[in-house]
Specification:
By secondary structure, the protein is α+β, with helices and mostly antiparallel strands. The chain is 27% helix and 40% strand. The longest helix is centred in the N-terminal third of the chain and has 36 residues.
Length: 371
């Protein structure tokens, strides 16, 4: 009985000692990891841009009169040549009829004068009339010929004024706010437009990039360079277009060059005046080594990250970051594809610390080159 009590006491002492040793050992740091990947990554130039219509037209009256009819609603899409406004045409129709009547009168007078001139031409040869009489008849006929030309111009002018009484859309596009209503007197001399039309199919996005990027843009411009835009940096839905314009000079004030990209905009996703985040894609690097951007940290010795070893410990690894692409950092040197790097929990780590992997970070949904 005494021996059993001693044995139990020894066992309990050993167990407590082991427990204290285990409790005093280093605890594993919980971390989230991601795999170093090798994938196609686009080289992109980020910028901020503004959407603008391909064309903007301020529709104005070219004749003065009372507006009798508006054939569209504010915000309608209109086609080129579509009737937009009608001005009371009666005054212009009357002016056209008057000009035609004057032309007809002068035509009759010219015919009579031309016949007289021809008769006097024959008579002057036979000395029945003087040369002076013939010259007078010839001059009268020629004067009426000039009057006919003036009358024809007056008819054309009156017809043009009558045509201008019907105001048509000069371009296809989206109408804006209606600035004049039916019943108002519109004047040809008024600088204020009746309505403004913006052509937004297609639409342009204007943006500027640093002049340091100009050489690369010129180098790859022979390809149709894609441009992606979104309303915000956090938006994952992008509208894709192509680079359509590079300005012929650098702005010496800002050190930037102006670019424009064209977008079909069939779904009206882009709107004139809208501010947008822009990504100009120059080329795609097929086998870039990438890690999630949050894995990379900055220290006194430069950029580094933590790599998880096969024995469950982490080591600090210096890396050279070439550039960023979306949610990824492109690594020039320091890690290889397939290695595990820590993306969350790095602040509690030191080189050689034991880690416990709590989860694997999800890969970014899109990386430009995956489109």
């Amino acid at each position: 009985m005494k021996l059993m009590t001693i044995a139990a006491t020894v066992s309990l002492t050993l167990a407590l000692g082991c427990a204290r040793k285990g409790a005093g050992g280093p605890a594993r740091v919980p971390v989230t990891v991601a795999h170093v990947e090798q994938r196609a990554v686009p080289f992109e130039i980020p910028a901020t841009g503004t959407a603008e219509p391909v064309q903007t037209v301020s529709v104005q009256a070219q004749v003065t009169g009372v507006l009798t009819h508006v054939t569209f609603h504010e915000g309608d899409d209109v086609a080129a040549g579509q009737v937009l406004f009608e001005i009371d045409p009666r005054l212009f129709q009357a002016a056209l009829d008057q000009a035609k009547a004057m032309l007809a009168r002068d035509q009759a007078q010219h015919q009579a004068a031309e016949l007289d001139a021809q008769r006097y031409a024959q008579l002057v040869k036979e000395d029945y009339v003087t040369k002076s009489d013939y010259d007078a008849k010839r001059a009268a006929a020629d004067a009426l010929q000039a009057t006919l030309r003036a009358d024809s111009a007056a008819v054309a002018n009156a017809a043009l004024n009558l045509e201008w009484a019907t105001i048509r859309a000069p371009i296809p596009g989206r109408t804006g706010r209606l600035l004049v209503r039916e019943g108002n007197l519109v004047r040809a001399s008024n600088p204020d437009p009746l309505v403004i039309i913006n052509q937004i199919h297609p639409i342009l996005v204007r943006f500027a990039v640093p002049e340091a990027n100009l050489a690369g843009i010129q180098r790859y411009r022979r390809n149709r360079l894609p441009v992606l835009v979104s309303p915000s940096k956090t938006d994952t839905v992008f509208t894709e277009g192509v680079l359509s314009f590079v300005d012929n000079s650098v702005d010496t004030t800002t050190g930037t060059v102006l670019l424009k990209a064209e977008f079909p905009n069939r779904d009206n996703a882009l709107w004139p005046g809208e501010f947008l985040n822009v990504r100009l894609q120059l080329y795609i690097e097929d086998s870039a080594v990438v890690v999630p951007s949050q894995a990379v940290m900055n220290g006194q010795q430069g950029t580094y990250l933590f790599v998880v070893n096969q024995d469950g410990t982490a080591r600090s690894q210096a890396v050279a970051v070439e550039r960023t692409a979306g949610a990824y950092a492109v690594i020039a040197q320091g890690v290889r594809a397939g290695e595990e790097v820590v993306t969350d929990g790095q602040l509690r780590l030191v080189s050689g610390a034991a880690v416990e992997v709590k989860g694997v970070a999800e890969a970014a949904r899109e990386l430009g080159g995956d489109k």
